[in-house]
Amino acid sequence: MHPLLASRARLGAYLLGWAPIALLLAGIARSQGWSWAESGALAFPLCLLAAFLFLSAWFLCRALPLGPTLKGLGPHGAAWGTAALLMGGLWAGLAWVLARLLAWFPGLEALPHRVNIALPVLTGLGILLYLASVALSYLMLAQDRASEAERKGAELQLLAQESELKALRAQLNPHFLFNSLNSLSALTAVDPARAREMCLLLSDFLRRSLGLGERRLVALREELDLARAYLAIEQIRFGKRLQLAWAVDPATEPALLPTLLLQPLVENAIKHGIAALPEGGTLSLAADVVEGHVILRVENPMDAEAPAPQGLGLGLRQVRQRLLGRFGSRARFETTALDGIHRVTLVFPLEIES
Amino acid sequence: MKALIIDDEDLARAVVREHLQAHPDVEVAAECANGFEALKAVALHEPDLIFLDIQMPKLDGFEVLELLEAEGKRPAVVFVTAYDQHALRAFEAQAVDYLLKPFSKERFDGALAKARALHTAQPAALPPPASELAAAARQGRPLERIVVKDGPKVTVVHLDRLDWVQAQDDYVLLRTEGKSLLKQQTLAHLESQLDSSRFIRIHRSYILNLDRLVRIEQDSKEHRDAILRDGTRLPVSRAGYQRLRELWEGDSL
User: Fold this and answer.
1) C-alpha dist (Å) from residue A209 to A230, B40, B94
2) Who's near A244: CB < 8 A, 6+ residues apart?
């Protein structure tokens, strides 16, 4: 749909813009010795026709977007020129038809003859007006693109802020916190040394996550340290039910990634994997470098009897969003659930802080 | 007084055990790390009191309680949980005893005293049934799974796998993956807990998982059958047909 046809107000303003052109046309005709009646009767309907006819320029312009450089301007110019010639000719032809129709009215009998003489001028004027429409259309397209980009930018920013907020909240998972404090409460009586260790681990975890929450990008090393602190606490809570298999290639450690991307994966693996299984299982975390990309994998056993999860939970959706928000098509996010193993894989370019 | 401690975390059980040492008249008959163990231990020890964690693998605390009730076993219960705002609100509303992890000795002793009083009180003072409590704790979110005790065996039916339900007097017959399971519950009670956009009461005696429906066949003027994916025919009453139509029309709007 043409943007000028989409709203009455716009269309009205556009048609009003043609009124001075019609007056000008009538004035020129008067100066050539036409009568007032002849000038007015031809100029106004003809300009109304042009107003709608030349709207077609917008569709041509949309099909031929302007690049940032002058490259490709030749073929574009040829297209504009051809279209302008055709439209100018068509418009003059319409003037010719209109003149013959108007000649039925008394006092306008001479119009066909007058228009015949003016046909070359009308064609030239049509070409000029069409080219002006082309220019106007490009202006409108540019404006539309600008406002669209603005809207998208605002939307993306909102999304980013939202997920940041959620991420910050997620780091103080109340379940984890209160259950850990409860374990601590138990340990104070039965194993004071372990209780102190738990205290230190908890402080370490909290300090790290507070520190990370303030930053946008971190090295994978820091994310791994946070996960290590978290899992050490969960190992005290779950005892033998939580086994860890850790396989991290040191080359991946300086890789930069959005903050708190790994933590939700690890928390998910505990919540839906280990904590949901009476006998627990092994949580595996692997990081490798393959062809300039980091492949980060978190695996956990899951309850084979429970139905497979429908779609991604909020936590994983945000991880994907933030990963793709940072790296775009250069990153990949995958989850699979096969043979009782749930696996999340992140692939992203290995970029190191300069 | 005999007590059971039911929690999937060793250390969480240890805290309860430690606090119970100050009450020599309470004997810890067993400790259970999950719901299945708890059901066995209750049958074996007939405890007067259970300390029950809510979040556990396979069966949660509410489901354990529901299965115990189905057996006619109603020990006094102290719920123990780390963090569950919805459940806490339900406990408060229903005056059910609970402990928030971590808890103090005073708080523990208070909960124990309340449980003791409840244990010796008249049956009228008994807490509400577990299914009601669980529904209150879900805060309007529909049920996700149903637990059924079939002799010694406990089956957890995830609602994705529930095909249809038939009323049989005071029982409901649950049809899932070609098996039939009986559970003591009325059809209306079960219906009220299910997601009404997925499970439709198509007949006085039937609830159908909409996902299984292939088409409706009209035999005579007033007699319709629902044909399911596996070829099963279930009767559809006039009111049931009306409900299905309302749902479809609602969808197409």
Assistant:
1) 10, 42, 38
2) A231, A235, A282, A283, A284, A285
How many percent of chain A have pLDDT more than 90? 34
Q: Which residues of chain B have a CB within 8 Å of the CB of A179?
A: 9, 12, 82-83, 101
Query: pLDDT tens for residues A220-230?
Result: 999 999 999 99
| pLDDT over 50 at A22, yes or no | yes
- Give the CA-trace dihedral at B51, B55, B60, B65, to 10 degrees: 20
Q: What is the pTM of this model?
A: 0.68
* Parent domain of A299: 171-349
Domain that holds residue B215: 145-252
A chain contacts of residue B11, beta-carbon cutoff 8 Å: 182-183, 186-187, 236-237, 239
Chain B stretch 53-72, residues whose beta carbon is closer than 8 A to a beta carbon of chain A: 55, 57-58
Sign of the CA dihedral running A93, A94, A99, A104:
positive
Nearest to B102 among A175, A182, A237 (CB): A182
Q: Quick check: ipTM above 0.85?
A: no
CA separation for the pair B25, B220 (Å, rounded): 70
Q: Which of A177, A178, A179 is the best mutation test for B, with the most CBs of B within 10 A? A: A179
- Of A106, A130, A162, the last residue of a domain is A162
